[in-house]
Amino acid sequence: MCCCSLPYRQLSQSFYKCKRTSCCKCHFKLAQHVKDIKHELMVKNMGRGLIMVDVVQRLGIDYAFEEEIELVLDSQYKAMDQVEDLYFVSLCFRLFRQHHYYVSADAFDKFINNKRELEIAGNSNEALMSLYEASQLRIEGEGVLDEAEFLSRQLLEERMKFLDYDQAITIRNTLSHPYHKSFARISGKHLLGNVFDNEYGKALQELATMDLTVMQIIHEKELSTFSRWWNGLGLAQELKLVRDQPLKWYMWTTALLTDPSFSEERIELAKPISLIYIIDDIFDLYGTIDELTLFTEAVNRWDIAAAEQLPDYMQKCFLSLLNITHEIGYKIYKKYGLNPIDYLKISWSKLCSAFLDESKWFFSGHLPRAEEYLNNGIVSSGVHVALVHLFFLIGDGSTREQADQLINSDASMLSSTAAILRLWDDLGSAKDENQKGHDGSYVTCYMKEHQEVSVETARKHVENMISDTWKRLNKECFSPNPYSKTFIKGCLNLARIVPLMYNYDDDQSLPQLEEYMKGMFL
């Protein structure tokens, strides 16, 4: 068998076995690069090993080195207390916490002076950037890391005035796109020009480039499959005003599931994501309150007969929802042995109920209190629906106990992710270029309650809320919990890609998302 036909995860073991040299010459080189990098990861020098772990993660190719990364971290975890250098203490803190090792913020006490102040001004730019990166993984109550973020940013911004362009842009990229809160396949681009000056630089560069090419081929095929499905569904032809954006919907799945082996799961996940957008538009652009109430009741009952009173376009959407959900549910049941339909139904019911509440507010001209709006907006974001589908598609819901815990608990990991999306969406710049209906906004509700505040003050308040929500999400992700690393990474990546999806410019376009899309396809 030619190695070209193998799953990407197996290529590093199989490229060199392939006899078809003419078609696999680059694959042979890739296999050698993988071997070289694995060797470098396993060196006994603590600093070199951890730096390599950091680099392969930033380049988005860490899935090819999972075993080696775990071995490096296991071997170095106990030695962290012996580290005195700010750069490496910060790097250790970030890597170990990110990989669910217990690490206390007390690790930074050694940099606090007798006045209980963080003393870091004499450190290098690299050390300050490392500290800034580490501060992004803080949780509530870690005041030393709040101070670390503020001071490291302040010092770096001051130093940028005296640096050449390349050095300044490296710092600017770190401050604007810290690794923990950025999507690796985007932020990794800024790394390419800075890490390839050692003996393994060329291997890393070629491996990252080949990985991108392989992923582009995979994404092209997946998008083609999903687009055929979407066009065959016919909802865009039936509902002329709804968003028709299969590429954008598919892009969400590339963030939630980065491992190339999850190809089928990305395609299936894109389907409910597309329906979140379509049902949102039906509530916002089409239905009367009476029609939307009937639609919500039909979803709550999950009964075809309940849809008979609906307008034709709503019936078609409702039937599509039922069919798609049952198709996905059957695939999950066939693969993992647990029927998720009841759990998927609950997530759709909660979403439509939240949409209905918003419609009632805006049809009546009533603005709710900011807290009430946000609590409902967390549900109407659609994040819960997407993540519940993700949970079952990757096999996390293999037992009813696991599934019950996700659906019946507060599932704060999901809610924190949803809050980040909702607050970003409501900052004011996030006005969809094709969306012409009524839009709610936390900023608007907040300013109604606090009539003395300016728009700038309200926006700053929302930015602070996003920062605090990230602290809660960090705690939920890095404290002991029943979720797999794949699911946790999916939650984090959803939060990380939100700025790309909602950071509109003055022309109501999404330049960062457009750049990302260009890099994802051939």
> N-to-C SSE series?
HHHHHHHHHHHHHHHHHHHHHHHH
Largest sheet: none
CATH architecture of the largest domain: Orthogonal Bundle
Give the overall silhouette.
globular
Within the CATH hierarchy, at the fold level, what is the topology of the largest domain?
A: Farnesyl Diphosphate Synthase
Keywords: Lyase, Magnesium, Metal-binding
GO molecular function: magnesium ion binding; terpene synthase activity
Cofactor: Mg(2+)
Q: How is this fold's topology laid out?
A:
Elements: H1 8-14, H2 21-41, H3 46-58, H4 66-76, H5 86-98, H6 125-135, H7 143-160, H8 165-176, H9 184-187, H10 201-233, H11 235-238, H12 246-256, H13 263-286, H14 289-301, H15 312-336, H16 341-364, H17 370-380, H18 383-393, H19 400-408, H20 412-425, H21 442-449, H22 455-478, H23 485-502, H24 511-520
GO biological process, one term: terpenoid biosynthetic process
Pfam family, one: Terpene_synth_C
Keywords: Lyase, Magnesium, Metal-binding
Using brief descriptors, characterize the structure shown.
single chain; mainly alpha; Glycosyltransferase; Farnesyl Diphosphate Synthase; 2 domains; globular
Descriptive notes:
This protein is mostly helical. The chain has two domains: 24-206, Glycosyltransferase, CATH 1.50.10.130; 234-520, Farnesyl Diphosphate Synthase, CATH 1.10.600.10. It has 24 helices and no strands. The relative contact order is 0.08.
